[in-house]
């Protein structure tokens, strides 16, 4: 087991995730934007399942089942990202371009980043990974106060990046 994991820092390691049923395999990432669920604790929760109009997320019964995704059905729409109370879902697109990948993750801080901003991207321990360029922010009513920020970043950091550093208030 790697030095950090769910038990030591409360965040799963890549190794733990790759052993979980919901985590995409390489070939799943090759088909375009897909949802990635980093939820590996058995808790009574299923908004991810009910938010997916494509029926791609399965929790089933009992409700403590870990969510699974049918990547054939997932279109990367992002509805499940805003619906997850644990902020445990993001969308990743390995096929964005030759050199860059795209990630769309939940963001619940003010101020929001703006399109075109260069932001610091972070990994599962909150560690700095690389910088990326904001290419979109979704903050519609359907998102229920959880904005979804989309950022493009170098593909060589594809697996490591899961979110961005919070932008500090200017005061
Ligand atoms: S991204 Fe859209 S289609 Fe894919 S699992 Fe989430 S809600 Fe369903
Ligand atoms: S909604 Fe989020 S926290 Fe709840 S089961 Fe789904 S992925 Fe896990």
Automatic annotation (TrEMBL):
Keywords: Iron, Iron-sulfur, Metal-binding. One of its GO terms (molecular function) is iron-sulfur cluster binding. It comes from the Bacteria. The keyword Metal-binding applies. InterPro entries: 4Fe4S_Fe-S-bd, 4Fe4S_Fe_S_CS. Pfam families: Fer4 (PF00037). Residues 65-94 form the 4Fe-4S ferredoxin-type domain. This is Ferredoxin. The lineage of its organism: Bacteria, Bacillati, Bacillota, Clostridia, Peptostreptococcales.
């Amino acid at each position: 087991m790697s030095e950090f994991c769910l038990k030591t820092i409360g965040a799963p390691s890549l190794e733990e995730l790759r052993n979980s049923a919901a985590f995409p395999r390489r070939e799943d990432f090759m088909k375009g934007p897909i949802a990635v669920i980093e939820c590996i604790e058995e808790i009574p929760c299923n908004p991810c399942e009910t938010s997916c109009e494509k029926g791609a997320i399965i929790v089933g019964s009992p409700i403590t089942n870990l969510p699974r995704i049918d990547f054939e059905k997932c279109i990367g729409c992002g509805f499940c990202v805003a619906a997850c109370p644990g902020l445990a879902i993001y969308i990743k697109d390995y096929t964005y371009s030759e050199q860059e990948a795209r990630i769309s993750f939940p963001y619940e801080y003010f101020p929001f980043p703006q399109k075109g901003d260069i932001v610091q991207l972070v990994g599962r321990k909150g560690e700095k990974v690389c910088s990326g360029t904001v290419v979109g922010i979704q903050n519609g009513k359907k998102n229920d106060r959880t904005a979804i920020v989309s950022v493009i970043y170098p593909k060589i950091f594809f697996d490591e990046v899961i979110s961005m550093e919070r932008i500090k208030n200017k005061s």
